[in-house]
Amino acid sequence: MNPLLRVTLLGVLLTAVLAIESPAELDPKSIDWSTVRTLQETSKFRAKFGLPPLSDDEIRSSRISGGTIATPTDIPWAAGVLIHGGTSGHSFCSGVLISARFVLTAANCVSGESTVTVALNAANMANIGYLISVSNILIHPNFSWLLGRDDLAILTLSRDAPIDNVTIRPVLMPRRSDAQKSFNDWMATTAGWGNTGNRDDEPIPTQFLQWAMDTVTSNLVCQLSYTWVRSTHICVSTDNGGPCNGDEGAPVTVREAGRIFLIGLHSFHYSGIRGCDRGRSAVNTRITEYLDWIEQNSDVVIQP
Ligand SMILES: *[C@@H]1O[C@H](CO)[C@@H](O)[C@H](O)[C@H]1NC(C)=O
Ligand SMILES: *[C@@H]1O[C@H](CO)[C@@H](O)[C@H](O)[C@H]1NC(C)=O
What we know:
This protein is of the alpha+beta class. The chain has helices at residues 3-9, 13-21, 43-48, 56-59, 107-110, 219-225, 291-296; strands at 68-69, 78-83, 91-97, 102-105, 116-120, 130-139, 153-157, 187-192, 210-217, 233-236, 251-256, 259-268, 271-272, 275-276, 282-286.
């Protein structure tokens, strides 16, 4: 985002937040994205680990992971998730449109929050197509923050997403029969607006949606890095770039016979407060383990 634009946006965030409390839609231009923090930077997140709040200077110096810029039609199911965190600051995550009314994101991102807005057709965050407020947040009942387990939440949009099938389209869900697959060694694409590593003081969301393609690693190998990984997780190598701070909730998809479908939702990665390690896999929520829960709590129909 160019500095001029940022200056224009400065100071009107409060207006934007007040606007969300009412059914009125947000004006994309009214958000001051420069005030948005990654989850890891919020005082709420840090307090969980007994860490003191970061100074503004510390927030500006996090380091990052590579990827490729997406065109507006590459990942039409990508959804930006803006969390209006009250006193703990605003934060940002990624998410995925699963039907006109429902978005999946990480529970990590929205647990304890009540005011959330979803950005669609936002491959370029300086030119957001739609911002839609969220009318309900459903956290998976067994979500564990510390273990990164059952890390998913279903967001209900306050109105239907304007699906055009080109820039906005729900992702396909796995079929029930896909639940037997490990997906080990499949190529998987992760897409989000988290930190990219291209500059030191990068605010999130990054202006452009980015994606990286890497192979799914076995849970056994993944457990060498993260001992608490279990069958409800699916890990993806970060050799070609991978998710970083701000990518929580990002969709992980695979392609089979021309059909692209969702297999994961980004949960956590190895990151010091200063960056994301390419040496270890990224850990995602394994969607095939949650097909019943998603079907029961949304209007998505899972195919056999
Ligand atoms: C939560 O965990 C309990 C105990 O393991 C289990 O019985 C229940 O089915 C889980 N809930 C969901 C929605 O998976
Ligand atoms: C999008 O695709 C769906 C499924 O093929 C179709 O039912 C719908 O009419 C399409 N919508 C538009 C706006 O093209």
